[in-house]
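Figure 6 in text form: structure in, sequence out.
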């Protein structure tokens, strides 16, 4: 197995184990055993368990980012782009267990990179939302006083949904509520 393939295998196995047992209960020994690699091989590719977890979360972040950009690109107008963005965001976050654990769990705050990941994630999302809103304003679809204020406000509202959706594990039960919220949000900024 090539070096890159070994690293990717370890990363994928680690993602699976972290998602089942969490950061604290997972050991490098378990990851090495599950990947059918020596513990030294894990440390050859990753400095520490924290480094490995960060790489897992970074990989999931890139997956989320790719899904969001694709969702935006699939919209024919700003309204569709915003609806797609919100729907895909919530669906994808539900699937990315490690990433979501990293952004929601306070017990991981002692790891410096968690704060960095949260900040980078928030900045990326704000930029994506601003681009949708700016397009909507420029195309006369949205009536927004300040994109600079509205974009972070939308992000804050979406983050508020994360508690009932993910922490209480009710994503499947709350889909219709999400659709109604998206509808209300879009109606509130649509140009009349």
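Output sequence:
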């Amino acid at each position: 197995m090539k070096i890159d393939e070994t690293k990717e295998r370890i990363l994928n196995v680690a993602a699976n184990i972290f998602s089942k047992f969490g950061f604290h209960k997972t050991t490098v020994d378990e990851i090495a055993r599950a990947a059918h690699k020596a513990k030294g091989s894990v440390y050859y590719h990753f400095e520490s368990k924290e480094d490995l977890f960060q790489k897992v979360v970074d990989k999931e972040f890139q997956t989320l980012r790719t899904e969001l950009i694709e969702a935006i690109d699939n919209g024919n107008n700003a309204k569709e782009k915003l609806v797609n963005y919100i729907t895909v965001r919530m669906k994808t976050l539900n699937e990315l267990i490690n990433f979501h654990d990293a952004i929601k769990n306070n017990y991981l705050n002692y790891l410096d990179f968690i704060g960095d990941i949260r900040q980078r994630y928030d900045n990326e999302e704000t930029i994506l939302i601003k681009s949708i809103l700016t397009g909507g304003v420029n195309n006369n679809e949205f009536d927004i006083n300040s994109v600079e204020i509205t974009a972070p406000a939308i992000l804050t509202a979406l983050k508020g949904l994360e508690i009932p959706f993910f922490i209480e594990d009710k994503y499947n039960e709350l889909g219709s509520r999400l659709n109604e919220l998206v509808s209300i949000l879009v109606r509130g900024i649509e140009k009349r």
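Caption detail: The chain is about 80% helix and 0% strand.
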